[in-house]
Request: fold
Amino acid sequence: MTIDAFTLAVIQNALIGVSHEMKLMTMRAAYTQLWKEQGDLSCCVMDASGEIVAQDPTGFPIHVTTMPFQLRGLIDGIGADNIRPGDVLMTNDPFLGGTHLPDVLLARPLFWKGERYGYLCNRGHWADIGGMGPGSYSPATRELIQEGIVIPPVKLFENDQLQKPLVDLVVRNVRNASVALGDMRAQYASCFSGERRLNELINRYGLDTVREAMREVLARSEQLTRTRIASFRSGVYHARDCIDGDGFSEDPQWIAATVTVSGSDITVDLSASSSQSRGGMNCSRASAISGVQYAIKSITDPENPPNAGSYRPVTVITRPGTLCDAQPPGSMVGYGEVTYRVLDTVMRALAEAAPTAVLASGSGSTGTAVIGGTDSRPEARKRQFLTLELSSGAYGARATRDGINAIRYGAGNAGHVPIEADEMENPLLFERYEVVADTGGAGTFRGGNGFCRVFRVLADGASICLCADRHQSQPPGLFGGAPGTTARYVLDPGTPDERVLSSKTPYLPLKQGTLVWLQSAGGGGYGSPAKRDRALIERDLRDGYISLEQARVVYGFEPGPG
Reply:
């Protein structure tokens, strides 16, 4: 059957709306700041073959594009013939195509008159999944089991009945059972809500029309992406970039990409990357693919709603046992750092093929800092506290525009916890939250400036853990643009007790009154600084984005009289 353009547009937007409503419902019902403030979760609609048809516009690319891989692992683990109406499936195993253990996937199989036609998926980053310390985030984990509880493919619901023994087992193995239970309920409630919306859609248009719309959405997205890729310069391109250490040493860990553009197809070979690290700086093949897909989607067809069709022209090659294709029993707690570097490396390799489309490297890290422990204050409303502070980031510049300042960069687009909400729930007092001047790389177009979050710890019994990057290597610029500055993680800066931390710091006790300075890297510049427009330099000086000294030294700028 054929479907007219108006009906196709209505159904496509309805499917996107279902995904968006699922995420909003989860955020509003959630207990953890990670969800209700930062939105660290993603939702999508898949067809019967497990291909993404629609996703929430505010969802994480790094979450959503790995969901098809993990869904296949769920189906294989449970058995396709054992999946029935009324089921909700659950896992967090990254070796089944996931990300890391804190990211828990729930999937609701969709049936209409006994026929399975799709899936609703909700993946959320749980505040704690057990493991070595609060937040389950130590870079010093050597194997997956140290990260926390591994949930194999299981049924959370069967025949619409919650499997309470399973729930009890899971929440008993995390540090805050009430938060875990509340967040789990928010996740599965969103699946039921999404299913009701889809039932309304099918009642209106019929299942055959909805399925044809799904097929057409994917086909059109593929064609749009192929048209853009065909405008790139065909050839074979190479790039490499590093991660600063593996959690046990400061030795760089390398991501190497060979990118082949041929007509409307792109092949990315990551097999020359460094061997699997000893610590938590590894990612699954699915996560590496998500970094590649994000890089290519963002420079080919960013305006079109993303779905599986957008990624059909892209082939990714990995080698098992490398950073980009970790094997059991390795740890993948820092998968985000590897995925960010895959993104940066692929983007850099494509610079020769599409110089006006690419961006210089951004801050290149999740910037994750876990602060948690015991709140010893007499007025504390709860004994234990936990917050994840995301010190990332800034965008790199592009051919026509400066990079964006002080915003989460790349494939993991979580927000920052408002400092007021942070202070209400945790024993922290913020002293700074601001854009840091001169941190973006100079260029014809300037890289985005990073930012700092600076707070004082008000209670004993707290600890800090860092699982981030770019404290040694600078985000590179493009075509003569300067690199951005490195990230900085410092305790008690400017005092005799000052201590500079690695971006990969296992749990470290904090004394009451400790001042914690978290600062992201800046983005790389694009083009020669000598060609920057004088009006843009003057604007940056007015806005406080660069200092007069940098304007003089880097850009050769001298202010006029008055």
